[in-house]
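Researcher: I'd like a candidate sequence for this fold, 356 residues long. If you have to choose between options at a position, lean toward the conservative one.
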């Protein structure tokens, strides 16, 4: 049986470029060489696509970037793969499936998924619609509201409104402390906590550096927990994992740089709460028309034990310390097997969409 050609996209133009490199290194290292031929495709910070053929352990540095060859994924269905450009020569390289290991804008937001739909190449993860609406925290909240999912109070602001922000209204509707987040960003990039008006103004300005739309959320005191889902139509959920942040909130630095931050799998919570989180994670994933995988994050509110939805990540991190694959490992599915499952789901979804 011929090996499947798997293209792994990584890097990208978002603020999560470096995390994508680490995720890709973890994924490529755990893909079976007996089942797959692997094409690592690096997208530079300025949007150039390059084919990497060096050692996997060197992916996270940049020494090789100038020595790799330029490639593009052709949107032409006749090619169904890469166009490799070497000088004035062009070579076509077929692809069976793509793993878009891209976090944040221009990768996790439906843009790359749209290209792959045009090219009719199967890909791992959520489709154009679910990627776009899940990436946008404002639209995610609107959909969660429509299915009766409890979440923090919030307000949505656009950059063009910055000169006319009614701070008294925000203080009354949201209160302090509150969180300010770019609507389209991940890994807590651009997220700030504000405890007064001056901090709120600074937080809003910081968030607008990352997006033209932001979300201001009520602070929820409680435990931060996460649940991993897997599937297209028959969706399964893991046990719940808990995040123990070393800082006031689980920002980018505490996620990836502070060794005092920890994850607990499974979380020490009541079975009834765990079941509620699993059910809500699947419900949200399906409402957003999810495919393949997602990590769904919640709070368990202090004193009340209410389960409050926080956000969904359609291509969560796959760094060695990332929660998604560790949650599945806790259920007995190691990373190589998990990747096999995700590739199978990519083909299943592709075949269902292309039955004519």
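Model: Candidate sequence:
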């Amino acid at each position: 049986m011929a090996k499947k050609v798997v293209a792994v996209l990584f890097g990208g133009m978002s603020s999560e470029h470096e995390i994508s490199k680490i995720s890709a290194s973890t994924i490529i290292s755990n893909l079976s060489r007996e089942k797959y031929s692997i094409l690592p495709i690096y997208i530079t910070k300025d949007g150039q696509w390059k084919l990497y053929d060096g050692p996997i352990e060197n992916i996270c540095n940049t020494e090789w970037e100038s020595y790799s060859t330029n490639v593009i994924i052709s949107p032409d269905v006749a090619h169904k793969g890469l166009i490799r450009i070497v000088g004035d020569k062009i070579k076509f390289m077929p692809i069976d499936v793509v793993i878009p290991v891209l976090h944040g804008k221009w990768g996790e937001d439906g843009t790359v998924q749209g290209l792959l739909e045009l090219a009719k190449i199967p890909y791992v993860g959520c489709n154009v619609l679910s990627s776009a609406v899940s990436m946008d925290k404002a639209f995610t909240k609107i959909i969660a509201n429509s299915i009766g999912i409890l979440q923090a109070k919030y307000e949505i602001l656009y950059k063009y409104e910055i000169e006319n922000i009614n701070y008294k209204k925000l203080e009354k509707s949201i209160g302090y402390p509150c969180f300010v987040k770019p609507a389209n960003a991940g890994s807590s990039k651009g997220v700030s906590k504000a405890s007064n008006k001056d901090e709120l103004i600074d937080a809003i300005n910081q968030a607008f550096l990352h997006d033209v739309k932001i979300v201001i959320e009520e602070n929820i005191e409680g435990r931060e927990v996460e649940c991993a889902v897997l599937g297209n139509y028959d969706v399964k959920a893991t046990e719940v994992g808990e995040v123990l942040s070393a800082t006031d909130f689980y920002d980018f630095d505490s996620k990836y740089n502070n060794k005092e931050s920890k994850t607990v799998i499974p979380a020490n919570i009541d079975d009834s709460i765990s079941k509620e989180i699993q059910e809500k994670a699947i419900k949200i994933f399906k409402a957003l028309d999810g495919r393949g995988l997602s990590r769904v994050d919640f709070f368990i509110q202090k004193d009340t034990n209410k389960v409050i939805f926080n956000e969904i990540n359609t291509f969560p991190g796959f760094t060695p310390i990332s929660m998604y694959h560790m949650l599945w490992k806790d259920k007995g599915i190691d990373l190589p097997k998990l990747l096999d499952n995700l590739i199978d789901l990519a083909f299943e979804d592709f075949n269902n969409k292309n039955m004519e």
